[in-house]
Structures are given as C-alpha cells and as structure tokens.
Amino acid sequence: xxxxxPTVEARPLSGRSWRxxxxxxxxxxxxxxxxxxxxxxxxxxxxxxxxxxxxTIINGGTAWIFxxxxxxxxxxxxxxxxxxxxxxxLTSATAAQFMDGxxxxxxIVLAVVILIGAAILNGFVGWIVTVSRVPDIVVTLxxxxxxxxxxxxMLPKVGGGSSDGFRWLFTGSATGIGTNxxxxxxxxxxxxxxxxxxxGRTPSGLSLYAVGSDETAAFLSGVNAARVKIVSYAVGGxxxxxxxxxxxxxxxVGNATTEGSSLTLNSVAAIVLGGVLxxxxxxxxxxxxxxxxxxFFFNPILxxxxxxPNQAQVIQGILIVFVMMVASLIEWRRRxxx
Length: 338
Fold this sequence. Notes:
Layout: H1 6-45, H2 51-76, H3 84-99, H4 104-132, H5 136-154, H6 164-171, H7 182-201, H8 203-213, H9 215-220, H10 225-251, H11 260-273, H12 285-304, H13 309-337
Helix pairs in contact: 1-12, 2-7, 2-8, 2-10, 2-11, 2-12, 3-4, 3-5, 3-10, 3-11, 4-5, 4-10, 6-7, 6-10, 7-8, 8-10, 11-12, 12-13
C-alpha cells in the first residue's frame, strides 16, 4: 500500500475553503477597502489632512454607525425598524435633560438607565409587531412619530447638556471637537465586536439569522421566532441609545426638533451598502461600520469636489439604488446556486 500524498489532498480543500471564505466575507472586505480608498482620495482633495480631519470623520460618523447597527440587527432577523431615527432623538433629548449639570459618574449611571430603557421600549415595539401581526413597517412608522413627540415633550427647545467627561468618552474632547479619535474608536469597536460575536458564535445570536432566513423552518427547528424578533428590536434600541449619546456628546446640547425620518433613511441606506439584505438572514455588523462611514463621508467628498449640495443628494440616491441592484443580483445568484 502507498501512503496518500497529503499535499495533493490539501490543495482542493484549501481552494474550496478560500472560495467559501470569499463568498462569505468578500463584500465586507470590499466595503472596508472602498472606505480606505475614499479617505486617501479625500486627503488629496483638501489643503491639509491630519488628526483633526480624521477625528472629525470618526466622531461624526459614530452616530451613523450605531444607527446602522441597530437597523442591521432588526433586518437580519427579518424585520424593519423605521423608528430608529425618532428613538435616537428621544434618547438624546432625555440624556440632555437629565445629565445637564451632573458630574461624570452620575452621567454614566443615567446613560446606563436610558440605554436599558431604550432597549425595553423598542423591545415592546417588537412585541407589538409579533403579537398584532401588523406589518413592522406600519408599527415602526407609528413609533417614529411617537418617539419624536415624546422627545419634544421631554425637551421642548434646544438645551440641556452633559458632563465634560461624558463628551470626552465619545469625542476625545471635553468640547466635542478634538484631534484624538481613539475614545470614539473604542466606543464603536467594543459594542460592535461583542454584538457581532454574539450573532455569529452563539445559539441565541445565530437564531436571528435562522428566523430572518426562514421563520417557518426556524420555528419547526425549535426556535422561538417571536422571542427572537423581540430581542432583535431590543438590541437595536440599545444601539440607538448609543447613537443618541454620541449625538449629544458632539453637539453638547439636546435637540428634539431634529428630523428623525432622515436619520432612519440614513440607517437603511447604510445597511444596504453594507450588504444586509431586506429579505433577512444575511448580513454582518462588521460590514455595516465602513458602510455608515462612507455615507457620512460622501457629502464632504462631493463638497471638496465643488458639487452643489442639491446635486450631491441626487448622486447619493443614485449610488444607493445602484448598490441595491448589485446586492440583489448577488443574492439572486447565491440563491440560484444553492
């Protein structure tokens, strides 16, 4: 008998593994590369690009990232949350109202309470969706206006505030503007990494993908689909609270008159660019991060190119439509292949 050649046997396995890895993570890698290319390009369009400009991109995009992550968790589980923009305004206004004049330690305690409250409140919206059987697009559209109204009741006019230490946590500066991006990077990385690992490595997290892919099959496999959807909305609410805190830290005051619908549309556009499919069951929080930054970063690039702001909106819309078409084509090919 002759021994099998391990090298010959390993090659096809390695090739299959590489193709499988590319199919699973190719979009994510591509989005990160696109972000790097855009940052490098932008650095050549302005007179000076340094720590302040880089920090501005990270700090300004933090709320976009958290909002997109919130939307992604819900959509992956087969839902859609049009209320995220209103909840951001509500959490920001609530935090500004109660944190004003408080020391850093009290601000942190209040932030934890508000975050838990946002998770419970949005989880309740998810419960209404599952119990009433009313389409989530209808229920969450109503929640958008309810959140916005509650925010105006909480903070009728621009005001409130937070401690200098709380602002530093999200911006690296007590004034909300600085050259240190690391606090914001840490605040983004830790919750996104924890949530991504939970969704990709634990049974409860993987159940979001199972329900989003095929709710009936997941139910027959013993997954409580209703509970999974409620959890997805609750986790989304927690991410929205983080976005609200970031908005407060940058501005230094709360503003309940901010238009929540536009923030919601930004979150939807970000998950589309990040490869999250509206059909559910497909997507990655890691890919949503650069996608949200790209959308935040898109208008400064067009401004540096001298593009009229109105034309910039049209270009951004065309880009989103194009990305949706490409994503749909990729999903169609994947389903046909399987």
